[in-house]
């Protein structure tokens, strides 16, 4: 969905595959039919790097919240996930996807993934 209640059409599977391959992001049709959190994370990592110049290493080192907790090793994965999510959410807002959630990363559903990739 576009910001302001607009409409973002869902692309055909072949169109999504073509664009992803042009961006040199690994994907096969089965990934769209049965997306996994691991595959979705690979795509989102690639989007952040290609479109925003943000690497996973940068996400890991830019998390100042770890300095605020008494046991940073206990929270590093959670804080990293939230930083990753926040950066993806911001990117997707810029391309018209205004309802991205953690569920889209942790328990991806085929229809939602196709719509997000269409953004």
Helix content: 55-70%
Question: What is the tally of beta strands?
Answer: 0
**Overall pLDDT level:** 84
Strand portion: under 5%
In terms of structural class, how would the helical and strand content be classed? Answer: mainly alpha
Work out the radius of gyration. 15 Å
Q: What is the straight-line distance between the termini?
A: 8 Å
Shape: elongated
Features:
7 helices; 119 residues; mainly alpha; 0% strand
Task: Give an overview of the whole structure.
The protein is mainly α. It has helices at 13-22, 29-33, 37-52, 56-61, 72-94, 102-106, 110-118. The longest helix is centred in the C-terminal third of the chain and has 23 residues, at 72-94. The protein starts with 12 loop residues before the first helix and ends with a helix.
What's the gist of this structure?
The protein is mainly alpha-helical and 119 residues long. It has 7 helices and no strands.
What's the topology here?
Blueprint: H1 13-22, H2 29-33, H3 37-52, H4 56-61, H5 72-94, H6 102-106, H7 110-118
Helix pairs in contact: 3-5
């Amino acid at each position: 969905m576009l910001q302001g209640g607009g409409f973002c059409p869902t692309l055909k599977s072949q169109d999504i595959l073509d664009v992803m391959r042009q961006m040199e992001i690994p994907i096969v049709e089965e990934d769209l039919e049965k997306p996994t959190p691991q595959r979705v994370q690979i795509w989102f990592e690639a989007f952040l790097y290609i479109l925003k110049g943000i690497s996973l290493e940068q996400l890991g080192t830019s998390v100042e919240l770890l300095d605020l907790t008494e046991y940073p090793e206990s929270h590093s994965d959670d804080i990293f996930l939230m930083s990753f999510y926040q950066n993806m959410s911001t990117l997707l807002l810029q391309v018209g996807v205004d309802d991205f959630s953690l569920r889209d990363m942790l328990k991806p559903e085929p229809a939602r993934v196709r719509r997000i990739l269409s953004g």
